[in-house]
Amino acid sequence: MTRTRAYRDGVLHKEDFPVADVSDFLAEPDTAVWVDLCEPSEADLTELADELDLHRLAVEDAVQEHQRPKLDRYDGHAFLTAYAVRFDAGTGDVAMSELAAFLTRRALVTVRKDDGFDIEAVVRRWDQNTELAKSGVPFLAHGLLDFVVDGQYEAVQSLDEQVEALEDLVFDDRPNQSLLQRRSFRLRKSLTALRKVVLPMREVISSLMRPDLRLADELTRPYFEDVHDHARQAAEQTEALRELVTTIRETQLNLQSNRLNLVMKKVTGWAAVIAVPTAVTGFYGQNVPYPGYGATSGFWASTVVVLVLSVGLYALFKKKDWL
After folding, report:
1. Per-residue pLDDT for 322 more than 80?
2. Gyration radius from the chain CA atoms
3. Side by side, which strands form the sheet with 70-74?
4. Rounded distance, CA 229 to CA 223, Å?
5. Is the terminal CB of the chain with fewer CB neighbours within 10 Å at N or C?
6. Is 82 helix (H, G, I), strand (E, B) or coil?
7. Mean pLDDT for the chain?
8. Hey, what's the torsion of the CAs at 168, 174, 177, 182, to 10 degrees?
9. Contact predicate 223/132, CB 8 Å
10. Do residues 148 and 112 touch, judged by C-beta distance below 8 A?
11. What is the C-alpha to C-alpha distance for residues 237 and 235, in angstroms, rounded to an integer?
12. CA of 186: how far to CAs of 123, 189, 209, 250, 254, in Å?
């Protein structure tokens, strides 16, 4: 499916026209054009590339998947790669949709690698911020990047909540160790994947704002600064959460080791308490005559010795915090 729009003098002039008409609109003054392609082949881009004089390497990158987030500069246009992010709180997984974009002086071409990228949400942002439409391509680029960065920031915030919940589970009286391990590793995996697409966005937006590219004019520059600030916050928080998950995992292992040591200490103490009565009763069970042998007094004597020694050992171990 192909989407097209043409803005003239800051007003939406026409939309959903054939791609073949793009050159006609670009021939008109004060007109900016947007073209959106979903899962196109390299052949599908050839006609548009010829009209806009797009570089062959950029066209190849636009159809190849798993490109890193970047902003490449070519003669007459720039090429952008970014990822829209969605976090599933139920599974703890991060879903990503790759997007490529060509930015010329008067045209924006977006290439979605799959239909998971919500381009309708981008269109709604453009329609809600028509006061910037006079800028043309900078207006279109800002709405696109604002949507991408906001999605990444929301994903980071959701992961932050998941990490806080994980912290509370670690200090439960009886934590589910297997659940903690699964959740911590899943969150770390999601943060690692998110880090790969969030961190480069700072440099992408910073490069896009350079004056020589002319992609951020005086009207849109404050808005690009705001997007850059959100990208910086998302990147810093992603790094902090990744380190925090590692710390939580280490804390979990330390607490687990401490609990094991405490259990072993108690078991050893009770074993020592039980060993003394066992020794006493074993001694009185020997098959040789001893004081009180064959008499009731011998039974009571052994019982008193067992109780006194057991209580004494218990009091001693409790005092030393061994029990």
Report:
1. no
2. 35
3. 11-15, 2-8, 31-38, 107-112, 93-103, 77-88, 70-74
4. 10
5. N
6. strand
7. 85
8. -40
9. yes
10. no
11. 6
12. 33, 5, 36, 15, 20
Closest alpha carbon to 205 in 192, 216, 219, 191: 216
Interatomic CA distance for residues 280 and 256, integer angstroms = 37
Amino acid making up residue 186: R
CA 315, distance to chain mean position in Å, is: 52
What are the tens digits of pLDDT across the range 108-157? 999 998 888 999 999 999 999 888 899 999 999 999 999 999 999 999 99
For the entire predicted model, the pTM comes to 0.78
Handedness of CA 143, 148, 151, 157 (dihedral sign): negative
CA–CA dist 139, 215 (Å, integer): 9
CA distance 46 to 111: 13
Q: Specify the residue for token string 């196109």.
A: 40
Dist CA 323 CA 275 (whole Å) = 15
Q: One-letter amino acid identity for 104?
A: T
Question: What would the pLDDT profile of 173-203 be if each residue is shown by its tens digit?
Answer: 777 777 778 888 888 888 989 999 999 999 9
With beta carbons less than 8 A apart as the criterion, state whether 233 and 153 touch.
yes
On whether the CB atoms of residues 146 and 227 are closer than 8 A, the answer is: yes
